[in-house]
Amino acid sequence: MANHIVGATGRTVTSGFLKSVLQNGVGRYVFQLQRITLKFCKASGQSRGVRDYVENHLLDFAAVNPGVVVYVTPKPQIHARVVAEYLNGEIHTVFLDKKSAEEIQQHVQSLVWRSGQPLVRLRKTQHSENPSIQGQWTPFTNRPSNTTAALEEKLKSLAK
């Protein structure tokens, strides 16, 4: 399923909780990017940055990331884009029309660092799959009720 996030606003990005790839990094870290395909037009001026990236930076990228398969697909009259395929089956597309080689290098590097999980707006900074049934801890949790009532009254009088 393709994830096209161009102008990511709160309405276009779903909300959820932070997820990670199960057990990745326990033995050794495995980059989740499996394949990257650069599609561009040989003659179009909008694909000039992609052509420059392919000529000057792509071999360095391939040397640094030997686990990523790189395909270069020149097609006539096509919008320049990079298609990233991840181990979990997700496909992400970034359009590269009128971008410089340095901007393309940043986009490609961000695709390498991603986990392949869809981008989500975080609902909370923390989340537990097994929430506590005991409730949230406060400084008054284990105090006797008469002491707690006296402390609450004292705090109210200090706040005024």
Architecture overview:
The protein has 160 residues and is an alpha/beta fold. It contains four helices and seven strands. The strands form two sheets. It has a five-stranded mixed sheet, covered by helices on one side. A two-stranded parallel sheet has the order 2-7. A hairpin with a 4-residue loop joins strand 5 and strand 6 (91-95). Helix 1 (48-56) packs across helix 3 (101-113). The chain starts with a strand and ends with a helix.
Topology:
Layout: E1 2-3, E2 15-16, E3 33-40, H1 48-56, H2 58-64, E4 69-74, E5 81-86, E6 91-95, H3 101-113, E7 121-122, H4 145-159
Parallel strand pairs: 1-6, 2-7, 3-4
Antiparallel strand pairs: 3-5, 5-6
Helix pairs in contact: 1-3
CA-CA gap between termini: 57 Å
Mean pLDDT: 84
Largest sheet: 5 strands, mixed
- One letter per element, helices H and strands E, the order comes to EEEHHEEEHEH
Strand content: 15-25%
Helical amount: 25-40%
Cα-based radius of gyration, to the nearest Å:
25 Å
Helix tally equals 4
- Shape annotation: elongated
What's the arrangement of strands in the largest beta sheet?
Answer: 1-6-5-3-4
SSE-based structural type? alpha/beta
Number of extended strands: 7
Poorly predicted regions: 1-7
Descriptors:
160 residues; alpha/beta; 4 helices; disordered N terminus
Summarize the structure.
Helices cover 28% and strands 19% of the residues. The strands form two sheets. The protein has a five-stranded mixed sheet with strand order 1-6-5-3-4, covered by helices on one side. A two-stranded parallel sheet has the order 2-7. The protein has four helices and seven strands; from the N terminus they run E-E-E-H-H-E-E-E-H-E-H.
